[in-house]
Amino acid sequence: MKKLAFCLIIIASGIIQITILNYFRLFTVKVDLLLICAVIAALSFPLKWSLFFCLFSGVFKDVFSANDFGVNAVLFCLWGFLIAKLMRKIAIDNNLMRLLLVGVITLLHNLLMGLIFVYCGVAIPFGVLLRVLIFAPLLTSIFFTPLFKLTKNTCRNPYE
């Protein structure tokens, strides 16, 4: 039941991200709710289920984005796997550590997406890339805590 509820949260977050959040941008940068869902899945579920939810979030984002299909799905699964490995070494149990983790993951995700675009021949102005690298981690980290608290009851035990 908790897994189905989290799937519904991912779907709702994706719909909100592609509709409502287009009107709430800061310097043309918006919150990445699906990346937040992938991080929450990696923090809250066992590895098998977290990779499933990361893949689901990434495919959902790929379907509604102009990027090459599968890039977000692969990167979201990579982030989920790396977070699971990091949790074995470091305790990520307070809000400050989670916010820092989300900020770093968002920064790395946007940096890799920028590098993938440049590799594919898409010209990205340096100012646009810099703006995304600065404001996306800040916005995503701000919206992480409310979404994490919303999902806390949904996915309480990571080894269930």
Structural notes for this entry:
With 160 residues, the chain is mainly α. It has a single domain (2-152), classed as Orthogonal Bundle (Arp2/3 complex 21 kDa subunit ARPC3). 73% of the residues lie in helices and 0% in strands. The chain has 6 helices and no strands. It has helices at residues 2-18, 33-44, 47-63, 71-89, 95-119, 126-152. Helix 2 (33-44) crosses helix 6. The longest helix has 27 residues, at 126-152. The N and C termini lie close together (11 Å).
| Fold-level CATH name | Arp2/3 complex 21 kDa subunit ARPC3
Ends: how far apart? 11 Å
Derived structural class = mainly alpha
Main beta sheet:
none
- Could you say what the CATH architecture is? Orthogonal Bundle
Shape: globular
- Give helix and strand order, one letter per element, not per position: HHHHHH
- Extract low-pLDDT stretches: none
Percent helix among the residues? over 70%
